[in-house]
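so im writing up the methods section and need the DNA-deoxyinosine glycosylase record in one place, dumping it here so i stop losing it
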Amino acid sequence: MPSAPLVPASPRLAGLAPVVGAGARLLILGSFPGVASLASQQYYAHPRNAFWPILSALWGLDGDEALQARPYAERLPVVRAHGLAIWDVYARCAREGSLDSAIRDAELNDLPGLIRQAPTLRAIAHNGGESARHRRVTEALGLPVYRLPSTSPANASWSFERKLAAWRAVFEQAEVMRPLEGLRG
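--- predicted struct ---
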């Protein structure tokens, strides 16, 4: 009897470094970067991901000022100036494609280490369900923890307006609606 062909294991992938600046007040935690984000080494790089349009809407940035209209390197200083930090719960994992449901053998990022490096953080918000599965870990860090609807295009059951309203409520509580005084990214 012939043996079954060997199926190659999913590749072991490494995530992105955190985006965090002085005065960070809210940490947004995704699960793990998708294929487009890993290829470009940019958070939320898929063109249909609502992350950058939501931030732009929250901060009143439109037209040429909208974050999604700017090069990635120009987005990050704006993020930092508003007191927002970005990272993922997973540092490494095996996964084919971009779906969270395909994540295997995941290794958590050093969230306590990031919290120590960012003493001004006031809250943590999980971007989607896979990230929120680790809510017990983030709650143990001693900050308020929120679950936000995923900005992924896979979360088509929520309209942009509904996602925006949920994100607005958390951003207002964490006071990341306006830029920090005197801080530069």
